[in-house]
Amino acid sequence: MSETCSVHTDFVRSHTRPAPAPFVPEVTLHQATEPISLWESTEAGGAGEQPPPFWAFAWAGGQALARYVLDHPAEVAGRTVLDLATGSGLVAIAAVRAGAARVTANDIDPLALAAAAANATANQVDLVLTEGDLLDSDQRFDVILAGDVCYSREMTGRVLPFLRRAAGLGALVLLGDPGRAYLPAGLTERAAYDVPVAESLESVPVRHTKVWEVS
Q1: Hey, which end of the chain has fewer CB within 10 Å, N or C?
Q2: CA neighbor of 79 nearest in space, from 102, 104, 97, 105
Q3: Domains of the chain by range and CATH?
Q4: Which pTM was predicted?
Q5: 6: CB partners within 8 A, 6+ apart
Q6: Count of CB atoms within 10 A of residue 179's CB?
């Protein structure tokens, strides 16, 4: 596993505590217990503006996707996998547990990669950590997994062409989403779950969440 900055790792560990993911108890995640204070700490804790701490929570789309992968290991077993916008690394860890040959966890946020590294260690799995925007790259993977990436028009507009291009080249592309505003039409439903979520973030205790195949 790639090394991550010790400052980022210390920040992650000091603002979270390890606990099982609510819908995927096989996986332990460093999760925040004080969402608002963590948001404020993230903004004040680094040089320049920091992305929101998506890495500190078990989001519905990622939980559903991780659950699906663990329950359907043949989808990833023996294959190369990209967990796009990995956040906490939950989906990537599930893919390793399901038997993937090599799992790349990618994010533009160095704190997310620090969290993914800490969570991989907690779960005794190995991930390839890749920082940066891969959406214009020509890297190829057998499977691409993306949890909760349709939360804004800008994000969906960037991610969807990449996912559809990868599917057109033969990759299996799976998207976990709890009905976010910018979820595109024309996807194929693979599974549906009622996923426990942090009510302080979602305003509800459970989100009905689906796993979609992108083609």
Answers
A1: C
A2: 102
A3: 6-214 (3.40.50.150)
A4: 0.93
A5: none
A6: 12
